[in-house]
Every structure is written in structure tokens, then in C-alpha cells.
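Known limitations

Files may contain more than one protein. Parsers should not assume a single record per file. Below, a two-record file is shown to illustrate correct handling: read the sequence, read the C-alpha cell line, then continue until end of file.
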Amino acid sequence: MGEAPLRLYMAMSVDGFIAGPDDRKGQELGRDGGRLFNWLDDRMSAGIDGQVYREAMATGAVISGRRTFELADRWQGDHHDGVPIHVLTHHVDASDVPPGNTKFYTDVNVCAAEAREASRDRAVLVHGAGAAQALLAAGQLDELELHVVPVLLGGGRRLFEATELGHIELEPVRQLQGRDATHLRYRIVH
């Protein structure tokens, strides 16, 4: 690729939900949405789930949607290892000073460029459906790392709603079977 890839890391149910119904402050993953993260119980293991977790934590920057950032309590200003956090938002309030090494962006292309530069050639971890869709629409998202959990949530927040983006091809890169998730990585064919 030549530059740091922007890679979405997202746990999801087989029916495409990244959070259960009624996701909000105090119930950030929605009803039953915590089920999507049981595989993280093995994040410190030497196995597949641990490998995938360590890869995510080796990323050099984060791009998040505003909603995800707020529901995560702004990660108290540090997602992991003090890496820069770039938050895509529709509006920046000058009085809202983001914590830690965090910056707000309304321009998706500027956000992507600055995150790539800040990552120091390591992958950029992307969080949130809104951020993923905005980056995909701008032609900036490079890869999807989907942690598919064997459950049907039946409702909640979908990763990809119907969009105006049309047909997008994905190239399978790898498939790893963890204890409670299948980790799929796809390269987006631009």
C-alpha cells in the first residue's frame, strides 16, 4: 500500500449488528450487545483472539465517529498507548476541548490524512459505523477487520445501513477462528 492502512476493527453479530437495541449512555452496547465482546476474555492469551487484540493495540492512531467516542466516555483521552485519537464529527464546538491527544474533524479527508501521518506507518484503527461509512464514501477506508460472533441479536445498530455508495468489492485477506469469534479481514477494492 505504501501508506498506513485505515482499518475498521468491529465486532458484529452474524445478522450485522454492532450493538444491541437501545444503545445509549449507561447501556453503551445496547441490550445484549456485550455478547459481541466475549471473545475479548481471551485477549491476553497466546491464541488467535490474543493475536488479533495485540494487532489492534499495535495501531499507531485511532479514527472514531463522535457517537462512538462519546459512548466510550471519550476513552478518558487515551484509547491505547497514548496514540492520537481523531474524531469525525458534524460540528465542532470551540468550547469543547477534547481530552488527551484527541482532535475533532469535520473534514473526513483531512482526518484520514492526519491520522495516517500520525500513525507513523502503522495501521490506523477505525471505530464506529458512522466513521466507517464516512471514510468508505470518501474512498479513504482500506480494510475491514470484522470479528463475527456466532449470535443473532435481531435488532440494534447495524454496521452498514443502505447507502448511496453502490456496489463495493472486498478482497478476502485472512480468516482466523478464535474461541468465540471468526476474525475476517478484507481489503476494499478501490
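...continuing to the second record:
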Amino acid sequence: MKSIRTAGVNISMILLGIALNAFAVEAFCLPYGILVGGATGIGRLLNYFTDMPVSMGVMCVNAALLVLAFFCMGKRYSASIVLGTFLYPVLMAFFEGIPQIRHMVQDPLLAALCGGGLMGVGIGLVIRNGGSLGGSDVVPVILHKKAKLPIAPVMYGLDVAILVLQGFLASPNEIILGILMTLTYTVVANKTLLAGGGHVQFMIFSPQNEKIKKLLVE
């Protein structure tokens, strides 16, 4: 019974995290042209070139990546990301239909901070409870398995590339706001992940650092 209750809480927190991300993008990011990474950024590019709704573009990208994950990573990993893969763009489409949320604040700087804060909490809740938003996070995981590339640098590099591709859509102010929002949700996500837990950090200094790092990763 306890395990069922725990699973219910975890799913509820994942759903809340996904909803917060979708709301933040539609209420604070897209209305002000603020750059965003991941599948949402690709959806924004598709919207620019084809007039496809951003939510539909995200759905197409996520679905393609889910198929890729199924063939490269197997059923178990695919099942772990299927909720975020489809629910996130569905909630984006839902919030797209509420134009009132696009005028909650007038200051773009405040929009970047609010959007980054909500996205950070959402990402932290999803990851902390064992979920995934799907999207472009799938690519680093596949490259790690197939080519032994480190996940974090590939993930950050992919996000930077997506942000750069959107550069021609944005003014210098919007680019700076995008960087600010990214920094904000990164810090808030880390704080959300660590909230309520005790943690100890230790550093290892050794001439065998590469060997130790390999063993820790394994």
C-alpha cells in the first residue's frame, strides 16, 4: 500500500513539473521571444519556417526522438520518457488556447525571471521523482551508450546549438534574456533537486584521476 501511495505521489509531482514547464514557456517565454533550448527551441524554429504551432512542432520532435530511443535504448528507457514526450506538448497546446496568460507581466526581464524560476522548479520536480521531459535529452543518452560520450557536455552543447540557431529570430535583448532565463532555471532546478535532503561533497586528488573517474561512471 505504501509503495502504491509513493508511486502516486511521484507521478503527481512529475505531472506538476511538466505542467509548470509548459505554462512557463507559453506564459513567459514565447510571448517575449525569449530564446529557449531543447525540443521547444526546435519547435520555435519550425513555427518560424512553416507557421506550425510551437506545441505541434515539439510533439513531432518528441515523437521522432521517442522512436529513436526505442530502437537505440530499448523498451524500458522508452517507457520512462513516454509520459513527458506527449504530455508536455499537449499541455503547451492547452495553454496556447488561453491568451490571457500571455499578458501576466509587462517587463521582459520579469518574464525571463518568472519563466526561468517556474521551469527550474518543474525540471527539478520531474527529475527528482524519476521522470523525464523527453525531447532533446534523449540524444545525449543515446550518444553516451553508443559512443561513450559524456552526457552533460553533449546536452549543454546541443542546447547551445539550438539557442544559436534561433539567434537570427531574436534581438540582442532577447538573446540576453534567453541566457538569463537558462541560468535561472539551471540554478532553481539544482536547488529543487537538493531541497529537503542532506548531502556531502568530497573531492579526490590523485594522479590516477582518469581511472577513478571511469570507475565512478561505471
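Parsers that stop after the first record will miss the second one. For reference, the second record is described as follows. The chain has a mean pLDDT of 84.
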